[in-house]
Amino acid sequence: MPELLNTRVEDCFKQAEVFFKRPFKRPVVSFKLRGQKAGVAHLHENLLRFNPQLYRENSEDFLKQTVPHEVAHLIAHQLFGDRIAPHGEEWQLIMRGVYELPPNRCHTYAIKRRTATRYIYRCPCPDSDFPFSAQRHNLVKQGRRYLCRRCRQTLVFSGEARVE
């Protein structure tokens, strides 16, 4: 899997070098990105991180659009420095001029949301349901207290949990 993506990163850098007639420092490429983002460029570390799940599910568009998108961030940083907007005119120039691609800010890949358990807390108010995250539920178990904003009573775990 990483070979095609690494080759595409290298090809994008070569395209930029031909266009700008100058060399660019190559980044470290990582596949340790999860969640909703397809890719992230860490400008000061010269690091590209890609989401392996979104790459597997959308490999053709990922190679065509996402890889150049992230490389363009590094190229823009190396050319213009820190004082540019992430998706500003310099980055857009690279997307349009070098890669001949639309400067889309965001991908449209389908994202599978993770399920989360919510712990139901209540107070004396009618229809009071307060779904707590696992993290907040654990804080309560360690002694933290949360109050209802209406009645100012301590919220108490109902014993119920639901998966969302």
UniProtKB/TrEMBL annotation:
Keywords: Cytoplasm, Hydrolase, Metal-binding, Metalloprotease, Protease, Zinc. GO terms for biological process: proteolysis; response to stress. Zn(2+) binds at H69, H73. It is found in: Cytoplasm. InterPro entries: SprT-like_domain, SprT_Zn_ribbon, Uncharacterised_SprT. Pfam families: SprT-like, Zn_ribbon_SprT. The active site is at E70. Its cofactor is Zn(2+). One of its GO terms (cellular component) is cytoplasm. One of its GO terms (molecular function) is metallopeptidase activity. Residues 7-158 form the SprT-like domain. Belongs to the SprT family. PANTHER family: PROTEIN SPRT. This is Protein SprT. It comes from Pseudomonas helleri. The gene is sprT.
